[in-house]
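Fig. S4 source data, part A: sequence.
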Amino acid sequence: MTHISHTTEFRYAAQHKPNQLIYGNGHIAVITGWTVKQAIAKHLQPSDYAVIGQLYSPTRGINLLIRNLLLNPHVRSLVVLNATKEDQNAGASQCLLDFFQNGAEESLSDNGRKSWVIRSSIPGYIDIDIDINALEKLRHSLKVVEAKSIVEAVEKIKYYAQKQTIEPWGTPLEFPLLTIEPTVLPGTRYGHRIEGKTIAETWVKIIHRIKTTGTIRPTGYDGKWQELIDLMAVVTDEPEDFYFPEPNYLPIDRSFLEEYVSQILDDAPYREGVKYTYGQRLRSWFGRDQIEQVINKLIGEIDAASAVMTLWDVKDHEKGGSPCLNHIWLRVVDNELSLTATLRSNDMFAAWPANAMGLRALQKHIRDEIAGRSEYDLKMGPLITLSQSAHIYDDTWSNAEELIKKQYVAICRKLDYADPAGNFLIEIADDEIVVTHTTPGSGEIVGCYSGKNALKLVREICAASPAIRPDHAAYLAIELQKAANCIKIDKLYVQDQ
């Protein structure tokens, strides 16, 4: 095989996520994991590398990365930044390294789809339509180098950039990626409310709502997403030690959660390649420890409506890379501490469960600190997130559909008769339907309706009680029609029978 000088210029052609990459004219591909790619690029010349890109997810990102590498056989070296767990990128980067070390075997992905499953302790998949011979040739044709820090990565990139490169290992191979556009039903574009007892349950309901009525639109990151605007999610009864269903269908596990929670509660020191953590923004970014401020505020004024924390910096407009989590409010009502958070942009499939659990941990920390420093023994109230852009990226659509198929129906089968709007007692008196509206707790009568027309009655009740749950309204309509039929045929009516 003949050699060519390292000065020969190449151009990396990315079929997938092209606008998310930094391009050079060398022969080395650089993977930075979760570390921002600019943190490495600023130390290099374009001739040092062919392309620099991040890798967030082993279950989705590696598949696209492999497709791009197969299309660019002039890339002969791969430098992978595989930092420690605290840098968040160990999972994806390690799984990629395991692919080149151990290969892949035919099996099923987490959503039951036939795939090439990477031989790794970290789940990672490659589409089965990619020829295994091409994957094997790629594995054995690239020089794969691991780096544990930005400094080490830069050193190794410069070292291998100075070496002579050989000709491309083969011809470009393209495997078209098929994406099926989902069917979208009509629905409200702005303002949505979803409630569940646990984060896991609420998450499944959120994914179902987005997949059913979310608008499909292009993103600024080489793809599409399906989106709902202004989505409020309410979690009422998440256990303090967090609920992980068995088998766990959440996109996170407890080990990841422990690290994620620390990034919200703790003030992390600056590290190159990490712009900020949420904990840094809350603890020191503005020269104040906002978590401590909120704790002291509520101890001094338990009914305060101004226990607010902000993560948005006006300089974010200029610098870019602004935080998705923007504001957090704490309120005490009826001895319950609730937390409300606003997120400007929210990946509901991959990120929201971790967001919600991290915020719940913050809520519990504040409750516990208040209890330890004062006479207030507060209950844990609901967790509320307000996501301005609640979306699912197109590379997770198939996973979302599988999640809905396996989990949504089971969740909806769990009947819950508790409605904050109250209860409705239905009976027949003097040849009329009589409906008594009572409060959910004490049973106090707050309304009474009567008539013979079931449709007219249900419309009147729903107009007077706009917060009634849709399933409860449907139940009322069925029961009221049954009562109306009993009047017509002179038969005894008993509610729910």
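Fig. S4 source data, part B ends here. The chain is about 35% helix and 25% strand.
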